[in-house]
Amino acid sequence: MTCRTSVRDVRASAASAVLGVTRPVLTGAVSAALVLGGLTYQAPALAQASGPIKIGFNTELTGPWTFFGNSCVAGLKMANDEINKAGGVLGRPLEFVTVDNQTSPTQAVAASRNLDVNDKVVALTGPTSSDTALAMYGYAEQQKIPYLVPVAAFPQLTKPGTRYTFRIEPDAAGWGYVIARFLEERKPGAKVALMYSDAALMHAIVAGFKYQAPRSKLTIVSDVMFPQGSSDATVQAAQVRAANPDYVIVMGAGAFDNVMQNQLLDLGIKPEQLLHPYGITTQVFGWGQRSAGMIYGSFFDHGLDNLPAEGRDFIKRFDAANGRPPSYVENYCYNTPYIFKQALELAGVVDREKLRDAFSRMKGREVTTGLPVSFDKNGARKEYIYFMQLLSVDGKRTYASKQIYYHEWDADAIPVYDLVK
Amino acid sequence: MSLLQVNGLVRRFGGVVALRDVELTMEAGETLGMIGPNGSGKTTFVNIVSGHLASDAGTMLFDGESITGASPHQLAARGLTRTYQAVRVFSGLSVARNIETASLLRRDARAGAGAGAGRADGATVDELAEWLRLDRLMGKPAGSLTLFEQRRLELLMRLAQRPRLIMLDEPVGGLALTEVREMIELLAQLKARCSLFVIEHTMRVIRELADRVVVLMAGEKIADGAPDEVLRDKRVVEQYLGTVHA
Amino acid sequence: MSARRWAVALGLLALALPFVLEGNRFLAFVYSIVMIHLIWANGMNLLYGYVGLMPLMFAGVAGVAAYAMIYLTRSHEWSFWLAAPMASLGASLFGVLLGLPSLRLTGFYFTLCSLVIQTVITLAFVFFPTFTNGDTGINQIAPPQAPWGGALSGVWMDETLAIVAVLSVLLCGWIVSTRLGKRFMAIREDDVLAEVLGIDVVRDRIIAFFIVSMFASIGGCLFAVTIGFISPRSFDVLTSLNIWLFVAFGGRGTLIGPIIGTIVLAPIPYLLQELQGFKDVLSGVLIIVVTLLMPGGVWGELLRWRDRRRARRALAVGQT
Amino acid sequence: MSDATLLVVASTLSTGLILGAIFALVAAGVTIVYGCVWLPNASNGQFFLLAALAAWSLTGAGLGSAAAIIMVLLLGLVLSLGLEWLLVRRLYDVPNRNVACFVLTLGLTQIMAGIFSMTWGRWSDQYTLPPLVSGITMIGPFPMTNNRILVLLIALVVLAASFALLRYHRYGRALRAVFQNREAAALRGVDVRAVYRMSFLLGSSIIFLGGLLFALAYSFDLTVAWTMSVTAFAIMIVGGPGSVLGALVVGMVFGFTQAIVSIFASPTAATFSYLLAMLAMLLFKPTGLFLR
Q: For residue A7, what pLDDT is reported?
């Protein structure tokens, strides 16, 4: 048994090794180390001078958020190809180096480092889940790499003092705030019930809603939080039904969102009373035809009014390629290369510090919607949201919806960073 | 003062009484045999005395001190140890490691009396190994030994601890006839070194080894005395010996 | 070369690698992650390989230590070098508490019990956000202070991890060679027999849980400052299972086995990121093949082959 | 009682029964494999998920739910046979097969998780099966979908059938004999390996069915695999390995605890309470509540 080598022996030989008695061993170890080092050593980071402009795209290609990561890739690739076909940026092609963070914060940090060190990317962009984004945020701020966040709504990504991180999606506490404003308008003095999963994003939305609800004269009649891994909500749905609310705000992690929706509908809550703070295409397919009439928040939907031709074109081409209409996730990821293009052209050179400055002063536009893209001193964007009403769902192919509300507000309309730590 | 004194031992399993007011004393240097049909409570008795099982009532003294409720390792430290009906050695470890583990906790070593280190009651572990003919098997995994070798190893591991009393639960169980002969000889030599408590079905073992015999029937002690007397006792013959080949 | 010289060479190599990998901060990072897992695997091996209990709440204990360390450094402005040992000590006492079921349960029952405990801990991390910030996690965890002022980072942080990892191997080897280690192995082989031979099984199991929780805790604190971000998912049952897998794959109850397991399996998800789902398939196939061909783990099986060959040779010599 | 109270009471019953029945079913599958063959299958959560995902794809391709279920069960049978032939049978004679099997099936779990993220994981973030039957039955003021009633019935019938099989059928007797003493059973002419194979197939099929029923009653996503694995193992141990009755009773107790505590406290308290109850059970009655 190997375990029988006693420590006294090891200590003795360690001493003898230091004294040079076992020189061959030491030499062997050091030369092995040097060989390994030679294999791994690379020249220190040089600014990217020629070849494609590399940007690190760190996203979820495996693990529970696989779908979001892959949807994002689909949108991003489309735009990237278009840009390169049209001549690239600053006369060079744009390349997104995609790495898989496995929906794990630890892996996201490792992947960021890989992109930073081995690919020497000029900027990072990436994940679609909040905790991986927060882990990357720490890395980007520490290593001073510009970091553009396409789809992660957690407010702390743009907390005061943030310098290198810029977020495209409005922050989640704001969504909660505007839901209260919206319901106040639709039915003054409404009674509202909340059902949500114990997850970072949901907590931020709820915090914003609870802040604004008394100011909008809304009453919260029921407030149910489910631990992660819940699978049934019938009892809570019955309790919510018994509290007789005018509206139920529903947001669950993954499939549990749909479980809550269906169980509320089973118990006789009308679709018109149901409000989801956000809805993407697969979610809508899950809700199905029986949910027609319900309301969901969005930042891009093929049912939006007044979409410019570029937006309609994007929807058509995405649908043709992927068999489903895009939602805001794909839209933000589609816009990401264009936002990079605008910022890089503003910076004029491929340099991290210059690119950061360009982001902070850019006045760009989303190519699909024409909405302005500019960031405040913390990297947050002007807040906005649409509320859509679901009209009909056609199997797993498409659905119809109409825009019923649009609102824009300043990020500091509510004390976001006091509400969410 | 007796070496072991058991008073009014009671143990129930559910509704079944396994031991009913069992009284027993044992003097130092004595070899006591315990016999009785299957299910009469012999192993339960050993389990309780050796600390594996709690009693429902009764007290136990070992060398004049109470051992009621003591755990097996505390008893081992005082010199009371046991073997099992199904042989039990560390089958994944080598014979040498088995013996080493057993001598880790030798009584005198723990008590701090370094003088006897490496010796088990006058004999070194090596001498014991030679005596038990294990000295050439040291490197083998204990699990690969024959049953008889394992029985001898078991014995050596107990002796390495310098016990004052060894409780043997069927020491010749499963052995071939020649091996039984040998085992009895070994145990007879052992009698000089420490007290033995032997559970056996094989009457030969009891006749040749025991100074005194106790008979358990359905949890009750029905006889206690010299082997010749007890084995001739009418009740014992009718209820027990009649059923086994003596 | 003798086994001892090999051990010294490996130790020196482990200590030298951070300087070698300095040129590539990504590989250096992967190396430091492997070192942390090595600390963990050694702890797991002590309990699983030598005492014979498979604790799936291992990561939970590491998490408790990490959160406690962060709380002490953030809210009480303690230095990492004071906070980490204190947090580890506290978490280890907690680990002893979680180990108490082992006094009644052994084998697979204890494993399942620890699985339930780990599930409760993970839920508690999410549900009681005072110390953990819930599902959101804690980001921008400051690196430890360097003795020469400033933050300990880069190659010196990696070197610190390598030193702790090498120490953990040495410590493990030392514990195993002591009377305590021999008692552990006796308990692993047969706890009832160990008790009859005078081993206080209850006390020794408690000691084992304390030592092992210390390994888990120190690894947890170092993990937090190395990654800079932790959330409840950093310390969930999958983390425990992974560490256990390293030990079982390499060979439980040997000093070398867990090192092999960690070095082979731990870097896969980092170095093969481009392979996406294939990398899971690859490591799964690797695990299955090794289990079927080497049920005692890589090193355990190599030792067995060696022993068998020696026995055959001895037999051959005996016959001639 | 007011309608509102009745509604809550009825919904509690419905939740407790359905959750309980599905968890009992999966635990029964686990218990048959672990309790009889002593092979802990760490990948049974993935089996469960695979069944649900396969049914989702088949119904998406236009197959009816009932046809999809039968197809998936057949598929599951083929898959388990293949797995038994390729991997599991190699462990029957390994001395420490508990551990070997756990490691092996963890490897299998990784493979399946990798495959899922390259396939279904890319196609959607959540999955719902069309109901087997449509319509709603009113139980007092509580509307229960016929689909869920049918799911409950299937689960209970399968549980009863496997109980009867293990208790009264020749196979069940052989299995108990093998469990008590493998060598003795072999001497008495029981084909031990055949019994093992049968148990693995039966257990796996029941887990597959559990996945299908879960998918019919609820929407699901990829995270359900682990939750299911942990819960099923815990239920099996508390109920007593090898006891289908134990799995049923403990599964139901678990379902009802979750439903009832969440009325009076919160869903989180419910989850904590059932986990702590299991812990207490393990500590104070480690052999399980029911004998096989």
A: 37
**Total beta-carbon pairs less than 8 A apart between chain A and chain C:** 192
Chain D nearest C-alpha distance from A71 (Å)? 8
Reported as a pLDDT band with limits 50, 70 and 90, residue B111 is very low
Per-residue pLDDT tens for A25-36? 444 444 555 445
Strands (E), B14-146: 16-26, 31-35, 57-62, 65-66, 80-82, 119-120, 123-124
How many CA atoms, within 13 angstroms, populate the side-chain half-sphere of residue B80? 28
List residues of C whose CB lies inside 8 A of any B CB.
179, 182-183, 185-186, 189-190, 192-202
- Give percent above pLDDT 70 in chain B: 90
Helix, coil or strand: residue A311: helix
- Evaluate whether residue B226 is within a structural domain: yes
Q: Is residue B207 part of a domain?
A: yes
Task: Give percent of chain B with pLDDT exceeding 90.
Answer: 37
Nearest C-alpha in D relative to C104: D283
For residue B226, the domain's CATH number is 3.40.50.300
Position B39 in a domain: yes
Split at pLDDT 50, 70, 90, the class of C230 is very high
Pick the most confident of B143-152, D34-43, D170-179.
Answer: B143-152
- Asked if residue A41 has pLDDT above 50, the reply is no
Name the one residue in this structure whose structure tokens are 């893209």: A373
Secondary structure of residue A19 in the 3-state scheme: coil
Does D260 have pLDDT greater than 80?
A: yes
Assess contact for C87 and C72: CB atoms under 8 A: yes
What are the pLDDT digits (tens) for C123-143?
899 888 888 988 888 988 989
Q: Which of D86, D88, D92, D104 to mutate to test the interface with C (most CBs of C within 10 A)?
A: D104
According to the CATH classification, is domain D3-284 in 1.10.10?
no
pLDDT above 60 for C68: yes
* CA–CA dist C76, C61 (Å, integer): 22
Please give the full DSSP string across chain C, using - where no structure is assigned: --HHHHHHHHHHHHHHHHHHGGG-HHHHHHHHHHHHHHHHHHHHHIIIIII----TTHHHHHHHHHHHHHHHHHHS---HHHHHHHHHHHHHHHHHHHHGGGGT--HHHHHHHHHHHHHHHHHHHHH-HHHH-GGG-B--PPPPBPTTSSB--HHHHHHHHHHHHHHHHHHHHHHHHSHHHHHHHHHHH-HHHHHHTT--HHHHHHHHHHHHHHHHHHHHHHHHHHHS-B-GGGGSHHHHHHHHHHHHHH-TTSSHHHHHHHHHHTTHHHHTGGGTHHHHHHHHHHHHHHHHH-TT-HHHHHHHHHHHHHHHHHHHHHH-
- Quote the CA–CA distance of D94 and D97 in Å, as a whole number: 5
Q: Which residues of A touch D258 (CB under 8 A)?
A: 232
3-state secondary structure of D136: strand
Q: In 10 A of CB D134, how many CB atoms?
A: 9
pLDDT > 70: percent of chain C: 98
Q: Give C138-194 pLDDT, tens digit per residue.
A: 988 989 998 888 888 889 999 999 999 999 999 999 999 999 999 999 999 998 999
Count up the domains in chain B and report the number: 1
Whether A3 has its CB under 8 Å from any CB of chain C: the answer is: yes
Domain that holds residue B114: 31-44+71-243
Tell me the C-alpha distance between A123 and A235, whole Å. Answer: 48
Residue among A351, A232, A367, A366 nearest A313 (CA): A367
**Is D86 near chain C, with CB under 8 Å?**
no
* Domains and their CATH numbers in chain A: 2-170+318-373 (3.40.50.2300), 172-298+384-419 (3.40.50.2300)
Percentage of chain D exceeding pLDDT 90: 37
